Amino acid sequence: MVFKKHNDKGSEDKIIDERFERNFNTGKKLIGFVVLGVVIAFTVFSSIYSVSEQEQAVITQFGKVVGVEGAGLHFKVPFIQESTRVNTTTQGMPIGYEESGTNDPNEDLSDYGDSMMITKDFNFVNIDFYLEYKVVNPEVYLFNTDEPLDTLRNLTKASIRSTISKYLVDEVMTTAKSKIQAEVKDRLIAEMQKVNLGIEVVNVSIQDAEPPTAEVVQAFKAVETAKQGAETAINNANKYQSEKLPSANADADKIIKEAEAYKENRIAEAEGQVARFSDTYKEYKKYPLITKKRMFYETLEEVLPSLDVIITDGKTQSIYPVDKFNN
Which residue spans adopt a coiled-coil conformation according to this UniProt entry (predicted)? Predict the structure, then answer.
């Protein structure tokens, strides 16, 4: 009986082991199916993408554009192709202020670095613009420049400043707003055609225009005072130049004329000496001895009148001067 019970227990363990092994194998298969299903699901979901009515999708393969898709459901090769969706509806960009995110414009924050402009009559005006644009070429928008919106903002600010500088402050704040808006838009469109951002300018509008704050006015007055001081210094320098330059020119002309006269005199004197020497030399060649004596006597005539002549034999105690020959 004991031996029989022992056999029954061994059979039960064997059955349990077989059952566990079957369950384990079944679990492994189930896990494999689950993993395979997840992979398949991920592959399917990463292969299919949708594009809304407000967007276009740019498809790239290994960094190269292979297509642009419009609204709808689309398929792409997983892990090889990528899709980048771009909003192609009209969007807005504030210039000169930051939107608060609420519907109350009074809560918007001013950006004086962009809103402060200098007018034609050298006054400051605090003016805000709102730019409306849309992407018309998603491929160019994504790959032609690194930061297309930053470039658009900078071009817009440059166009605004160039335009505002042509108008008086009163015109900017009152009668010329519509004209300024149109001119800024035309100037911006012309600049956009040069850089090709894939963006189209829809509209440019003035939101607000007002005088600057008291601090800015004070700073502007300080700048104007310094500017006037510089202009005064320049005018004084020009006046001093105008006063002194004619006199200096006259002195220079006088010195030049005196130098030229001295030069002509010296040249004439030298030419006379050369002529006299040539004549003497001709006479010398004819009568050398007579010419030498004549030259000797002529030299004495020139020298002796200015000398005190004393005659002595070298032995007498007293020396008596002889009067000048010209007395």
Answer: none
**Could you tell me if 56 and 69 are in contact, meaning their C-beta atoms sit under 8 angstroms apart?**
yes
Average pLDDT value for residue range 122-127 = 86
Instruction: State the fold for domain 91-212.
Output: Tetrahydropterin Synthase; Chain A (3.30.479)
Q: What is the pLDDT of residues 150-160, one digit of tens each?
A: 999 999 999 99
* Contact by Cβ (8 Å): 67, 107: no
Distance CA 25, CA 35 (A): 15
d(CA 280, CA 292): 10
Q: Give the pTM.
A: 0.54
CA distance 51 to 56: 6
Q: How far apart, in whole angstroms, are the C-alpha atoms of residue 49 and residue 150? A: 29
Q: Residue 235, exposed/middle/buried by CB under 10 A (0-12, 13-18, 19+)?
A: exposed
Average pLDDT in the 221-245 region? Answer: 83
Q: How is residue 125 written in tokens?
A: 């005006």
- What digits encode the pLDDT tens for the residues 29-75? 667 666 666 655 555 566 777 889 999 998 888 878 888 888 888 87
| Helix ranges, the chain (H) | 2-47, 112-115, 138-143, 148-164, 169-173, 177-195, 214-286, 288-303
Amino acid at 17: D
Question: What integer is the mean pLDDT of 118-141?
Answer: 91
